[in-house]
Amino acid sequence: MADGPPPQPPSTAPQQPPQQYAPPGAPPPYAGAQGPSGPRANFGQRLVAALVDGIILAIVQFIFQQILGNAAGVFNFAVGLAYFIYLEGSPSGQTIGKKILNIRVVDFSSGGPIGYGQAAIRYFARILSAIACLIGYLWMLWDKERQTWHDKLSNSVVVPTSAYPVADWPG
Amino acid sequence: MWRTVVLHRPSAFRAARLVALDVADLRIAGILACAASMLLPMAPGYDGIACPLRMATGLPCPLCGLTTSVRATLRLHLGDALAANPAGLAVVAGAVATLFVRRRAIALPTSAIPLALIALWMFEMFRFNVP
User: Fold this and answer.
1) Whole-structure pTM over 0.90, yes or no?
2) Within 10 A of A75 (CB to CB), how many other CB atoms are there?
């Protein structure tokens, strides 16, 4: 699998501002303000990817509900768990929604796949992101590294595949 | 004898206190919040969005009442908006502003939004009479 360059964690040197990502030729986003240390998926991409994943899971869970009735709860939980852990933990780091939107999850430190363990942490951390009226999801709007709470807890970032190409899916 | 002392702050020191917010992201989030606050109440059986934190713990979250507040702001019922959640006015004002801002990003002090969230949380605690 061909991974792109790893995202650079913010500099800790007090006198040196960290290198900030900007598209080639673009002016700095705002003089004196810190931006992300590498390319990041934007809010719209992540929102649409989440909607696509939500619709896919809702269809599958509706089918389980029709077949199994009240016993479908456990299966539906397992389907959601397996879907996110298998696909986000895979080398591509892409759910179906993320694949359609050309974004992927990578490890913040290495820029590589997050693996199934981190994907499991990421899945359960979504509960924290959602519990306070989605503040954890909205956090990416004002976070320097564009991370949600579940990104931070799983030490991951969501990046565009243009900067971090995917060799094959799910890999 | 007094003498003037000039404190030189390195640029990194100043930069560390500002964070760049992507205007396109803010525009999407703002428009989405406005659209949701107007459309959701039209849904059959709508009875407000239940806050998971409040359901689980009894404590409101900083954004409780935001849908009501945004909807009231869009209808220019500013008193109702302030009573529900003052952030609604900021969300609508911000959403409108992003339509006219030509910058790719705007800068805010790093601590501004966390402090605002804490203030909103205090407000909601008071509104719901949480001791």
Assistant:
1) no
2) 15
